[in-house]
Fold this protein.
Amino acid sequence: MVLFAVIYPLIITVVAQFSPNRGKGEIILTRGKVVGYKTIGQSFTDNKYFWSRPSAVGYNATTSGGSNKGPANAEYLTTLQARIDTFMVHNPSIPESQITAEMVTASGSGLDPDISPESAKIQIKRIADARNIPEDKILSLVESQIKKPVLGLFGPETINVLELNIRLDELK
Amino acid sequence: MNTEILGILAMFVATLIVAVPLGKYIARVYAGEKTFLDPLCNPVEKFVFRICSIDATLEMNWKKHLTTLLGINFIWFLLSMFILLNQGWLPLNPDNNPSMSPDLAFNTAISFIVNCNLQHYSGETGVSYLTQLTCLMYLHFVSAATGMAACAIVFNALSRRQTQKLGNFYNYFLKSCTRILLPLSFLVSVILSFNGIPMTFNGKDTVTTLEGNSVQISRGPAAAFVAIKHLGTNGGGFFGANSTHPFENPSYFTNMVEMISQMIIPFAFIFALGYYLKRRKLAWTNFGVMTAGFLCLVIPTIFSEINGSPTIQHLGIAQPTGSMEGKETRFGTVASAYWSIATTVISTGSVNSMHDSSMPLSGAMQLLSMMINAFYGGCGVGILNYFIFIVLAVFISGLMVGRTPEFLGKKIEAREVKIAAVIAIFHPFLILVGAALSSYLTAKDAQMGWWFNGNATGWLNNSGYHGFSEMLYEYTSASANNGSGFEGLVDNNPFWNITTGIILLLSRYLPIIGPVAIAGLLAGKKYIPESAGTLKTDTSTFAIMTFAVIAIIAALSFFPALALGPLAEYFTLSK
């Protein structure tokens, strides 16, 4: 018991001191201030920021979890419809058929830090209007922030919403 | 989408490439041969045996093995009950989480001892760091090693000789820990901690977000925990959301590492059997049957998730990445679907997407994986479950060709077949009795009194067919010692804690006792050399036979239950 419960975690903790941010989780700094953890998603509701996905726990990282709603649940479908309506009010130029399901469904952890490139692209017009920045400038920013699959081979393309929004703030 | 398919292929192939040499290594460990870790492990093991005053060279028969196994498991139970009930005032509790209620502690303790890890609490608020490390993580190691040691006994019993002496339980057990689980855990947790999984004893952190809100973030010594949770096919997460949580699984790369680490030991044991008994063809035949079964389950799941939800399609929006409710963007639908089947066939029960929000057909496949519970299977116990089906297949084939059934040169007689049949029927019995009881209470909307705060329908998060699936899933997961859940179910209350706790106990120990007893009985019999008339168990004909036995038992036992839950939901949705 001493071997597994004491020695093993202590050795790993010592080794972890050499990892990014000494094993405390990777943080992101802007202008000397901590604005969050790289892998823990944040809620964005302002028109001038890219939005994260909906969260069943409201991006409160002292808990975690999904909605656990089944696909046929009537109450759940009403929630989805309301999210679609909200999205359309804020992004009037985007037709309903282009809205990605990702932007109206909650993630498993409720702390998803990423969105897909498609979901970022449908928000560009709104942000360009809110910030008075040309759309193509934001589009090229979005494209520069796309994380490629592992080794270029395995897994989907994603964008970290917090990092994207920080770059967006730096954009002139 | 193509990179996503490539991703899962890479995971499967990498697992296989690591597992074959690992299997050879495991066989050497149990056979007591020299391995490269000897200089490091020998002194440690000697020291442990000396302070516990155990004579590790004493050979035991199968009955002695089983009593030792059960005895040591009972000691762990008492120890974990103490920690869980008192964690509130014990040290290493920076977030001041309270002690557990007795029924929750009962469920949690049993669930971790039996390698199931149903978690009716949430890691951030339900346990302290002391509990995570000294109780839960410790049990991650020893419960996996218990299964592996039981499997080693069966290996020993099946080698060709006539004996009652089947090695020493403590020896197998400690070697499983020090020579297999611990070195691998070191390796995996270092990789994980360098890829963003925290390993810190600090409590919650508070940050101000870009939009100016203040949020708190739970942390903890997770890297060490997550490594053994997968290697030992335990699956109990450090955080409530398990491996969907960005601190338990921060990227696609860590997802691959965790996926591979949860499948290597089950894969390796299949090959270890081959090396140990010097019957490598038998190992590949078994692997073939299991892989065929695995593919039958995983392919429909991937398709149903890629296609997305029919109800969302109805709302008129696009689903370029498939069904995303309960899934994480960084893993995508394909890797989530693959994980959901892998975790249910091998009894890990960790999740990287919320199974409750899976498509109905995927839900049916996840349930079926746990109901069959013999494709790859958990650490050690996977082989034991599969062994039961082999015994049945040998017996049935023997009857078909009209000769005495034999397996590895030992006659299989009435007593062994009786044990195998009871074990095979017991698993569906536990699941269906549990599901029937809870459905009866739900249908009546019974007043539950002390057992549950409110009426019985209050524990469901979804109504109708899906609600039935939630209850069926919980009991299936308990009986398969899996530990994943349709997490919408409100399960932290005396009714669910106690009923699943009892099922956990029965469904863990009987499937260990049964195969060890059969193997012990076989070991005592005379060895009959192979002849032209021997039924060969490493041929494709016999492989198909075993597959058919598994499929028939599963279909007969579970088809009605599946039809009432996920299949009914599937057909109503696809109308």
